[in-house]
Design brief:
binds pantoate, 3-stranded antiparallel beta sheet, 11 helices, alpha/beta
């Protein structure tokens, strides 16, 4: 595996691969790699001739400076994992390399970006669109891989792809869970042992809600999930929305969507965890 730190090295390597007719798969990450990332890279390895993974903690998508400061950074361990999977290129640039000048672009992301994470974290999705569009331009991949834990992010990236006219396939990959059901996330390492022990209650509440969805209205089910999670003293649900899986718009009646998805954000202590489930 080659570690590339400059855009120039990256574009040269990608142009070379393209000129040989090779297919390129990109896995954008912010590092602190876990088995969820590993599964995206393995999938990319199967689908493509060349696999590029980027490791870049993108400052423009953090609306909270403390969150950016405390985001885990584990480059050495990340490189070992990528090497073991057979990633060809790890792109690990500095902030100056990605943003030689401030990125002032404002994307017209529309309704998919206005609800849930978009409402709670102003500017977050614009920052995601900025960095992912830059990566797509640098790498020019045939396919790009994203985890469904960040379910809304995938819809936003699809919208950005449409706006920018990128010719590539977005490949959504299923959430990976710990044995006790907690969705794998780079933020999990910030949980205290006590918080880590109660955090699986999020997925438990979501799974129980699926089991009773047939007998409950959307509103009743939302209530059930929030109350079940918040029954744990260390947990506070920020939002629980049941949305259409394509438009991300909240539904009020099951008849409004053929693919409803419940999306939740929970503070476990000061760690913000997100998860979702399909109904
Ligand atoms: O999902 C993430 O880790 C990030 O939002 C992404 C897509 C790598 C952009 O920084």
């Amino acid at each position: 595996m080659k570690v590339l730190r400059t855009v120039r090295e990256l574009t040269e390597a990608m142009n070379d691969a393209r000129s040989k007719g090779l297919t390129i798969g990109l896995v954008p990450t912010m590092g602190a790699l876990h088995q969820g990332h590993v599964s995206l890279m393995k999938r990319a390895r199967i689908d493509n001739d060349v696999v590029v993974a980027s490791v870049f903690v993108n400052p423009t998508q953090f609306n909270n400076p403390e969150d950016l400061r405390t985001y885990p950074r584990t480059e050495e361990a990340d490189c070992e994992k990528m090497e073991a999977i057979g990633v060809d290129y790890a792109f690990i640039p500095s902030v100056e390399e990605v943003y030689p000048e401030p990125d002032t672009r404002v994307f017209d992301l529309g309704p998919v970006a206005e609800v849930m994470e978009g409402a709670m974290r102003p500017g977050h999705f614009n920052g995601v669109a900025q960095v992912v569009s830059k990566l797509f331009r640098m790498v020019n991949p045939h396919r790009a891989y994203f985890g469904e834990k960040d379910f809304q992010q995938i819809a936003v990236i699809r919208r950005m792809v449409e706006l920018e006219g990128f010719d590539l396939e977005i490949v959504p990959c299923p959430i990976l869970r710990e044995e006790d059901g907690l969705a794998m996330s780079s933020r999990n390492v910030r949980l205290t042992p006590e918080q880590r022990a109660i955090a699986p209650a999020i997925h438990r509440a979501l799974s129980e809600s699926v089991a009773i969805a047939g007998e409950k209205s959307v509103e009743e089910l939302k209530d059930f999930v929030v109350k079940t999670i918040d029954a744990n003293p260390q947990m506070r649900t920020e939002y629980y929305e049941i949305v259409d899986g394509k438009t991300m718009q909240p539904i009020r009646d099951w008849k409004e969507s053929e693919c409803p998805v419940g999306c939740v954000t929970v503070y476990c202590g000061d760690v913000r965890l997100i998860d979702n489930i399909k109904y």
